[in-house]
Amino acid sequence: MTQSYRTRIIQIVRRERIVRPRDLEAKGIPREHLLRLMRQGIVHRTGRGVYELADLSPTEHHSLAVVAKETPNAVICLLSALRFHDLTTQHPAEVWVGIHVRARRPKISTVRFRTVRYSEATFKSGVGIHRVEGVPVKVFSVAKTVADCFKYRRKIGLDVAIEALREALGGRRATVAEITRQAQMNRVWRMMRPYLEALA
Asked: How far apart, in whole angstroms, are the C-alpha atoms of residue 146 and residue 62?
């Protein structure tokens, strides 16, 4: 391996944090150079086709970046989205991943995860893209996440949904109108309304 390939790969992985062989091939670097760096202990494999520099420390949301790299069409939802937006005291043991109702269940090899299926309309609504460790990560917005918590209250608990609503309104992270719109789309407006009126 030439020094130029070695230097370029290290620069790319340091900048992007998480790479796949095809990311390097798109830049004209054959994948075998990445594998050589792995054998030398400079890069390590953290999952199926996912590589990182061995000397980088993961951030708090590292698992979200890994999920996004392995499953770019998925959206971080429910407890994981609450944690990302700092709306809960919960520390989910698995990454909550939203997928389209007709999508195949993703294969994520590095982290524990739980899937939630969304209809066409609700899957496209309220999606924000955030950069985590250089990786674009899709995360549902605060208002969308709060409405989802009420919709899936049997999965996560009504107390968690109420806490999320309180934090979102109290911290001015979402408006009543934004939450109402998402609640109506999720068809939970009638059951959410008393809580919203009490906290607004």
From this structure: 23
Q: Is the Cβ–Cβ distance between 146 and 161 less than 8 Å?
A: yes
What is the bridge-based pairing of β-strands 135-140 and 43-47? unpaired
- The size of the chain, in residues, is 200
Q: Where are the domains of the chain?
A: 3-53, 63-199
Query: Tokens 């590095």 belong to which residue?
Result: 110
Residue bearing the bigger pLDDT, 31 or 179: 179
Tell me the sheet residues that pair with 96.
114
Identify the pLDDT of residue 2: 62
pTM score of the predicted model: 0.77
Buried b / exposed e over 6-34, threshold 16 CB at 10 Å, is eebbeebbeebbbbbbebbeeeebeeebb
Strands 95-100 and 75-76: antiparallel
Q: What is the 3-class SS of 57-84, one letter each residue? A: CCCCCHHHHHHHHHCCCCEECHHHHHHH
How many angstroms separate the Cα of 8 from the Cα of each of 3, 12, 133, 151, 183? 8, 6, 18, 47, 48
Q: Would you state the structure tokens that stand for residue 139, as one six-digit string?
A: 């995360």
Residue 42 has pLDDT above 90, yes or no: no
